[in-house]
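The authors assume throughout that readers already know how a fold can be written as discrete tokens. Each protein is reduced to its one-letter sequence and a matching series of backbone shape codes. I therefore recommend that a typical entry be quoted early in the introduction. For illustration, here is how one protein appears when written out as sequence plus structure tokens:
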Amino acid sequence: MPVKEVLAKYTKDQIKKAAQIKAIFFDVDGVLTNGGIIYDDTGREIKQFNVKDGYIISHLKKAGIIVGIITGRESKIVSNRAAELKLDFCHQGIMDKYAVFEKLIQFHKLKKKQVAYIGDDINDLKVLQNCGLSACPADAMDYIKTKVDVITKSKGGEGVAREVSDLILASQGFLDKIIKG
């Protein structure tokens, strides 16, 4: 899809916010996955990630954008996925996501308006309300949708991170270069 078509889906305010982003932080369950957790007979946890979400991460990093996870659950699967994607950080088992968000912006010398956050539930609200560009999946609860800048067309685990990443990369002039190779 040409960059003009990507940006045509968004308001001038959304594009302006996306153009300022230097970091993008993701929740996992319900954002990078569909929120389902499968346990096999041995108790082993299974999650499914979207390849399109994973693929765009390398392009975000090449564009100089910091990429990482802040999630409330702990899972070896998430650690493995974060390592595979070479994320800048992966914070798991986080009860107070906003406290971690604040520490990360200080550590990376960022302003709140320079961080995009994608979350889908109550424990994401404070970060969503205090970051530069907030987003949630199409299947987030209505009370989350009313608090974000962008509601993706995709449901959790179906390309949510890709949609927001494409917006950010397009607004900053990188998506054209990526598509043209």
